[in-house]
Amino acid sequence: MTYENMDEYKFMEGILGVKSGTLPNTIFCMLGPDGTTRLSRSGRGPFFAYANAIAMASGMNLLAAKYPNARKNALSDSQLPLVKRVDLALNVASCDNRMLIVTTAADKPSLKAVDQKLLSLSWSEQFAGQFVYGSTTKPADLKPLAGTEQDKAILVVEPGPYGVSGKVVAQLPAAATTEQIQQALAAALKKFEPLVKSHRSHIQNGYNLGIEWESVVEESDAQSVRAKQAFRARQRLQQ
């Protein structure tokens, strides 16, 4: 999501140590709980810091041992892990093959109360890492979500293959109890079948359908930009 925020973009440039305006679309670095202390080498992926998955797991355990308080509080937080915008949350959910939870209300105080109901569940052993979260007070943000009912405050969404649409598979009112929410989330997860995507055909079909994500910050990954330009050139020759 670095291309969706200029401040984050600049921060990642510093982490990777690249020339301004040339940030690639994947970055890896282990940081301390303060969000700034580097605990590993930085690079395009984990392979810059670790030889393999076993080495990475071992290294992460050693790092975690140095921060016992952070480890103790791993499944707790004072806020939902919200993505900034609903459309972006939908896209992230599709990319990560995760279900999306969207909370909605008429005003910010009411929305905060709904979010609070999900807080403990979102960081529980049962659900941590299983959902992407979005939140909004704008009805227009819900238009891509088929099946939304007007009086519902918590929407459980199965994202479409390209993250530009989704299907509501469960929804609850603001008055729902923690137990009711937990049951609904568990049932949705049990039925959810992540899509199996072929990288090459997924990209080609997306282009053929005219689906292309416009990021806030212009894409600067040279390899990705060249690949898109080459594909468009082939499309023009075929027309």
Blueprint of the fold:
Elements: H1 6-16, H2 53-65, H3 68-72, H4 86-96, E1 99-104, H5 108-122, E2 131-136, E3 145-146, E4 154-159, E5 166-172, H6 178-191, H7 199-208, H8 222-238
Parallel strand pairs: 1-2, 3-5
Antiparallel strand pairs: 1-4, 4-5
Task: List its traits.
239 residues; 5-stranded mixed sheet; alpha/beta; globular; 11% strand
Could you explain the architecture of this structure?
The structure is a single chain. This protein is an alpha/beta fold. It has two domains: 110 residues, no CATH class; 106 residues, Glutaredoxin (3-Layer(aba) Sandwich). The protein is 40% helix and 11% strand. The chain contains eight helices and five strands, in the order ααααβαββββααα. The protein has a five-stranded mixed β-sheet with strand order 2-1-4-5-3. It is globular and about 50 Å long.
Provide a brief overview of the structure:
With 239 residues, this protein is α/β, with parallel strands linked by helices.
Unreliable residue runs: none
For the biggest sheet, the summary is: 5 strands, mixed
Given the structure, what is the number of helices? 8
Overall residue-averaged pLDDT value? 91
Beta-strand residue percentage? 5-15%
Shape: globular
Indicate the percent of residues in helices.
40-55%
Could you state the order of secondary-structure elements as H and E?
HHHHEHEEEEHHH
Distance between the termini: 34 Å
Q: Describe the strand arrangement of the main beta sheet, using strand numbers.
A: 2-1-4-5-3
The tally of beta strands, per DSSP, is: 5
* Class inferred from helices and paired strands: alpha/beta
Gyration radius over CA = 20 Å
* Total domains: 2
